[in-house]
Amino acid sequence: RSTCASEGGPLDPLQVTGAALGALFVVLAIREIAWCWPVGIANALLFFVVYWQARLYGAAVLQLVYLAMSVYGWYEWRRGGRGHGRLAVSRTPRAWGAGLALAAVAATVVFGLFLKHRTDAALPFADAATTSASLAAQWMATRKWLENWVVWMGVNVANVAICVSQDLLPMAALYAFFLVLAFFGLRAWRRSLATSSPA
Question: Does residue 150 contact residue 187 with C-beta atoms inside 8 Å?
Fold first, then answer.
């Protein structure tokens, strides 16, 4: 999730623990287990520290938003479905999809300019783009919209490139792993959608 991590070594305990929690979050989400969201809260707290130390401020702030979204997602997955029951996988409404795409583009420009001129961010526009797209994808995940996995695939491809450019090869490998998980998530949620949709 989010942008690549810190300048510390590959055995940095915060990175290792955060990466493990991030992977656990995705695995639980693939299986539609609502406990992914408390795991996401812990992941966000750890990675906030990691990203702030790496001067990736967009990614750091994103973790605080993830925390709030994780609380919301936990409620929605358990009580946001029909009759306040379990939420089912569905397609992203077209209006929401278009709105999220436009908002992500606008946020990338505005936030990228802010990071470039007001901070010492290492990669201001790449940081802003992955931040904006990650926010959109996470919101989609809280609603169990299938296409969130497609957005995560794009985010993870970008994260691999960012990490390689910063010589953070262990984190690049981690996001390559997340890319594979996103593929499996898309496939699993497609099956779930097919079984829950009326014939």
Answer: no
Return the closest-CA partner of residue 186 out of 137, 148, 130, 155: 148
d(CA 136, CA 165): 24
Amino acid at position 125, single letter: F
Question: How many residues would you count in the chain?
Answer: 199
pLDDT tens per residue across span 8-50? 445 678 878 888 898 999 999 999 999 999 999 999 999 898 8
Residue appearing with tokens 């605080």? 64
Q: Which amino acid is at 68?
A: A
pLDDT at residue 113, rounded to an integer: 95
Tens-digit pLDDT profile for residues 137-164? 999 999 999 999 999 999 999 999 998 9
Neighbouring C-beta atoms of residue 78, cutoff 10 Å? 15
- Local structure of 90: helix, strand or coil: strand
The model's pTM: 0.85
Q: Give the whole-angstrom CA distance, residue 36 versus residue 144.
A: 13
Question: Hunting for tokens 């985010």 — which residue is that?
Answer: 155
**90 bridge partner residues:** 145
